[in-house]
Design a protein that fits this description.
The chain has nine helices and no strands. It has 224 residues and is mostly helical. It has one domain: Vanadium-containing Chloroperoxidase, domain 2 (Orthogonal Bundle). The chain is flat and about 70 Å long.
């Protein structure tokens, strides 16, 4: 009997011991993941600064004035509103549908970006003076947060929403949206990361809005 008592295992069962070890390891793993995330964000910030500085230091006298004018034209989505008006006037019923989808996407994008992301991120605008952005390029520095780029977001939201109805114009509109997005870095009011994320957010919104508005309605839905 004494021998059986001696052979009987003492302490918590193996499953409980394993759970305890895993619980002890979890804080360390969380610290490692947090450290990696902080390091990645730091490196992305350094990359943003490097790209911003390289663009500012590269002489482009032929491009400066056109990009500055394009950037100003896209203020408050005026460029996309003008394109929507032209499509509605010249494109027939399909053009009006595409223009309507683009306008809805612009409205949704404005709310998501300006009320949501910009207020949450609160990233400061770049310091144009420190890298000496040429005066010929400069546009008025907005008061809103830098992240994400509202110009890039609205351009891609409009292009992707319109493209759901008029696929033939999707590529030219996306190209124009890309140039508008780059113009915001060229004029010194955004980092490249702001533009990339703005384009990603806007494209997603445009796809969702365009898909939602282009779904075929079920027979009798209007009557109900």
């Amino acid at each position: 009997m004494a021998a059986e008592e001696a052979r009987r295992p003492t302490g918590p069962p193996p499953g409980e011991r394993l759970a305890g070890r895993l619980a002890a390891e979890e804080p360390r793993r969380q610290r490692i993941r947090r450290t990696k995330a902080i390091t990645a964000l730091t490196e992305l910030g350094q990359l943003d600064l490097a790209i911003y500085g390289a663009v500012a230091e590269t002489p482009t006298p032929t491009l400066d004035s056109p990009l500055r004018r394009l950037s100003r034209l896209a203020d408050r989505s005026r460029l996309w509103l003008g394109i929507a008006a032209a499509m509605a006037a010249l494109g027939g019923q399909q053009g009006r549908r595409a223009a309507g989808a683009g306008l809805v996407a612009l409205a949704v994008d404005s709310a998501v970006v300006n009320v949501g992301f910009k207020l949450a991120a609160r990233r400061r605008r770049p310091d144009r003076d420190s890298v000496r952005v040429p005066a010929l390029r400069q546009v008025p520095m907005p008061d809103s947060a830098s992240f994400p780029s509202g110009h890039a977001a609205s351009g891609f939201a409009f292009a992707n929403a319109v493209g759901q109805t008029l696929p033939t114009v999707a590529a030219p509109l996306r190209l124009l949206a890309s140039v508008v997005g780059y113009s915001r870095v060229h004029t010194g009011v955004h980092y490249a990361g702001d533009v990339v994320m703005g384009a990603t957010i806007g494209a997603s919104i445009g796809d969702l809005v365009g898909w939602g508005l282009s779904r075929p309605r079920r027979p009798g839905a209007g009557a109900r």
